[in-house]
Amino acid sequence: MIKLCFYQRLAISLVAGFIIILAGFVWLSGQSQNTMQKLAEQTLHLDLATHLANDNPLLAEGVTDYAALENLFHTQMVLGPSFEFYFISPAGEVLTYSGDMADIHTMQVELAPINALLAPSPQLPIYGIDPKGIDTNKIFSVAPVNNANGLQGYLYVIIGGVEYDTVWANITSNHAIRSAFIAFIAAIVFLLFALLLLFKFFTLPLKELSNDMLKVREYEFDLDQVSIEKKAWVANSHNEVQQLGFSFNAMLDHIEKQMVVLQANDASRKQLLADISHDLRTPLANLQGYIETLSIQHEQLTPAQQKTFIQISLKNLRNLKHLIDQIFELAYLEGGHVRLQHESFSISELLHDVLAKFAIKAEQENVLLRIEMPEQHLYVKSDLEKVERVLTNLIDNAIRHTKENGEVCLEAKLNKQGSVIIAVCDNGIGIAKDELDAIFTPRYQASNTQTDQHKHVGLGLSICQQLVSKLGSQLQVESELGKGTHFYFVLNNS
Questions:
Q1: Host H or E run for residue 200
Q2: What is 45-160's CATH superfamily?
Q3: For the chain, where do the domains classified as CATH 3.30.450.20 start and end?
Q4: Secondary structure (3-state) at 148
Q5: For each of the chain's 494 residues, which pLDDT tens digit applies?
Q6: Assign residue 418 a region: left if phi > 0, alpha if psi is -120 to 50, beta otherwise?
Q7: Smallest Cα–Cα separation from 48: which of 143, 147, 112?
Q8: Is the Cβ–Cβ distance between 143 and 52 less than 8 Å?
Q9: Would the pTM count as exceeding 0.85?
Q10: How many helices (H) and strands (E) does the chain have?
Q11: Side-chain half-sphere exposure of 188, counting CA atoms within 13 A
Q12: Cα-Cα-Cα-Cα dihedral of 234, 240, 243, 247, to 10°?
C-alpha cells in the first residue's frame, strides 16, 4: 500500500474536491440552462396549436379528411422544421402525423400533461410524450379541435422534435468540447494558484518548526548556544501543527531543565568524588604510615608501642571499611539495583530489637533510649531489613548529636489514614532551619555536627532517604536548633 505524505494528501484532496465542485457546477448550469430554454420556447409557442386550429378551415370546421390534414401538417413542418404535428383522439391515440407514420414509436399520448397545459395559468415548462421519440418527453403546444358533436380530438404540436435535437446536438457538440477545454484550462490555472497559496499557508508553520528543530540538532541540543524564538503554539488546538509546536517547546523546556539537573549532578558528583578521595586518602595514608613504621622499626619499638601502632592501624582500617561500605551502598541504591522483600512484621518487635543494639552505646554516652507506642499491636507490610537499616542510621545519628543526660525516643503510631508513622526523636543539638533542605545531600554535614571515634563523611542520611524512597515513602525532618530533631516516615498498615 502506497503511503502518501502530508503534501500529497493535501494536493489530492484539493484536486478531487475541485473536480467534484466543477462537475457539479457544470451539471447544474446545464440543467438550469436547459430548463430556462424549454420554458422560454414553450412560453413563446404556447398558443401555436390554438392559432393553427382556429385559422385553418380544415381544423376549425372539424376534421373529416385525414389525408388533407396530413398534407397540411407536412406543409407546416416544412415551414417550421423544429415542430412535429399530430392529431390525436380524445383518448390520446395518434390519428395522423406530419411525416411518415412508420417513424412513430408509440401511438398513445398521455392526456394528463395535455389537461395540465390547457388548464388556466399552467406551471411551465410542461413535458408531454413525443410519439416519434423513444421514452422521451418534450415541451409541446396543444389545442382542442371541436365539431358539431363536441370534442373531436387535439392538435398536438411537439416543439423541438427529433430532427431539431439531432441538429442541435451536432451544433452544440463542437461548442461543448471547446467550452469544456477552456473550462479545463481555467480550472488548472486556478488550481495551481490555489495550491500555491494553500501550501504556503499550511506549510509555513511546519517550515518554521522544522528550522527550529534543525538548529537544535545542529548544536547537538545545547540550548545555551541555540537562538530560538519560541512561538506561542496552542496546546489544546485541533490543529496538529499547533500541537506539534507546543510539544516541541515543552520538549525544549524539559531538555533545558534536564541539562541544568545533569550539570548540577555532574558538579555534585565531581565534588563528591573529590571529597571521598580525600576521605579515603587520610585513613590510607595513616594506615600506610603506621604499617611502614612497624615494618621498618619493629626491632626498635617496645611491645607497648607496637600494640599502639596496631590499634591505630586497625582503627583506620575500620574507618576505611565503613566509608567504603557506605559508598557502595549509596551507589547501589542510586543505581536502582535494590530488590525489596515485602513481608508483614510487628513494629513493636522491630523497635525493641533495634533499641537493644544501641543499649550499650547509649549507656556509654549517658543517653536514655525509650519506645513510645500508643498501640502495641501494629503490623506493617514492608522490607524488614531496609526498615531496620534506616532506623539504625537514624538512632546512631540521634545518639551522636544528643548531649549527656539527653533522650532518644522511637515512636510508632497510626495516622488518620490508617498508616503507621515511625519516628526517631531526640532532644539534642538540633539543625538550623536554613540547613534542613541540604542535610540529605551526599557529603553534606551540618555546621554543628558532632564527631566520635568513627569517621563520618555525611552519607548516612542520603542512604536513609534512598531506602525510604524505595519503600514507597518519604523521609521527613523537623528540627529546631538547640531543642532536638524529629525524623519520621510512613508505612502502610498490614
A1: helix 162-218
A2: PAS domain (3.30.450.20)
A3: 45-160
A4: coil
A5: 566 655 566 667 767 777 777 777 777 877 777 778 787 777 777 877 787 777 777 666 665 566 666 666 766 665 667 788 888 888 888 888 877 777 788 888 888 888 888 888 888 888 888 888 766 788 888 888 887 677 888 888 888 766 666 655 555 555 655 676 677 778 777 876 777 677 777 777 777 777 777 777 777 666 666 666 666 676 676 667 777 777 777 787 787 788 787 877 777 677 667 666 766 777 777 778 878 888 888 778 888 888 888 888 887 787 777 777 766 766 666 666 677 788 999 999 999 998 898 888 888 889 999 999 888 788 999 988 889 888 988 998 899 889 889 999 999 999 888 899 999 999 988 888 888 877 777 655 555 555 554 444 567 788 888 888 888 889 999 988 888 999 999 998 87
A6: left
A7: 143
A8: yes
A9: no
A10: 12, 12
A11: 5
A12: -150
Start-end of CATH 3.30.565.10 domains in the chain:
342-491
Residue type, 345: F
CATH 1.10.287.130 region(s) of the chain?
Answer: 240-334
Q: What fold is seen in the domain 240-334?
A: Helix Hairpins (1.10.287)
- Determine the residue type at 408: V
Report DSSP letters for 327-389, one per residue. HHHHHHHHTT-----EEEEEHHHHHHHHHHHTHHHHHHHT-EEEEE-SSS--EEEEEHHHHHH
The architecture in CATH of the region 342-491 reads 2-Layer Sandwich (3.30)
Decide: residue 204, CB within 10 A, 0-12 exposed, 13-18 middle, 19+ buried.
exposed
**Residue 342: which residues within 8 A CB-CB, separation 6 or more?**
381, 382, 383
Residue 63: CB partners within 8 Å, gap ≥ 6? 69, 87, 145, 147, 152, 153
Contact 351, 412 (CB under 8 A): yes
